[in-house]
């Protein structure tokens, strides 16, 4: 029988820690809590969580710095800071999702379950090598190159790019991306897609021509720019 998933809840507010811990235990997670960034890092080494629910505003190390030190542990940011630049900063560090306070406990549980499904079921694309123009994604080596130059991507950025490459020339909606990349089985917040596409563009489209395009009101596509876009 599979063991319960381990969740580390990191927040400096005792009421939030208690509320989240009790709720997550009720739905069969194994939970440990920490009230600061330094305690969180110690808990990660001792507890070896499957996911960390991480507040940004902590009394010592902020959540962004903690996330930098976590390595490959999936992270759900839970914070009052909901500005786009904060979301992008968190996601750029490899965080898997971002929920703003005040939050719905049901939504937090659903997002945790979605992240765990994704991390446990994350499989490479069907084809080991995906390529378009001068962009190449090697699933076996987990490497991406643009014009022969290696591009460093987080696991979620890698999966998002793989999905766009597998559908190169087609327009995919935010809902399709949430379903296929984030593996949500509920109506997730599409802003995470916008944030990830924004950051992925900063890495992939540093070189001309730009390949990732927004189709207003529809979604996103990976293709060469049309003549009227150059």
TrEMBL record:
GO terms for biological process: regulation of DNA-templated transcription. Residues 127-224 form the OmpR/PhoB-type domain. One of its GO terms (cellular component) is cytosol. Pfam families: Response_reg (PF00072), Trans_reg_C (PF00486). Keywords: DNA-binding, Phosphoprotein, Transcription, Transcription regulation, Two-component regulatory system. GO terms for molecular function: phosphorelay response regulator activity; transcription cis-regulatory region binding. The modification 4-aspartylphosphate is found at residue 55. Residues 6-116 form the Response regulatory domain. Residues 127-224 bind DNA. PROSITE patterns: OMPR_PHOB, RESPONSE_REGULATORY. Coiled coil: none annotated. It comes from the Bacteria. InterPro entries: CheY-like_superfamily (IPR011006), OmpR/PhoB-type_DNA-bd (IPR001867), Sig_transdc_resp-reg_C-effctor (IPR016032), Sig_transdc_resp-reg_receiver (IPR001789), WalR-like (IPR039420), WH-like_DNA-bd_sf (IPR036388). This is DNA-binding response regulator. It comes from Planotetraspora thailandica. The lineage of its organism: Bacteria, Bacillati, Actinomycetota, Actinomycetes, Streptosporangiales.
